[in-house]
Design a protein that fits this description.
single chain; mainly alpha; globular
């Protein structure tokens, strides 16, 4: 059962990161994966909600993720 929960959690994290930005690079996804899971655990995927959450917490994300979010601001 514990392995199942871990697999579900990993799947949700991956899906959440894909929802972060449709065209995000693999580096962006990797840099922000843990931050998204930690800072935005209850945020629904889609319509840019995870990206909005991450930007709302931009002062709390890791340095690597902050750099990637800055690139996404345009």
């Amino acid at each position: 059962m514990i392995a199942y929960k871990g697999a579900v959690s990993a799947f949700i994290s991956a899906a959440a990161m894909l929802a972060l930005v449709g065209s995000a690079s693999a580096a962006s996804l990797q840099m922000c994966k843990e931050d998204a899971a930690r800072l935005c655990p209850g945020v629904e995927m889609g319509k840019g909600r995870i990206l909005k959450c991450m930007k709302a917490h931009e002062n709390e994300v890791s340095i690597g993720c902050a750099k990637e979010l800055k690139k996404m601001k345009g």
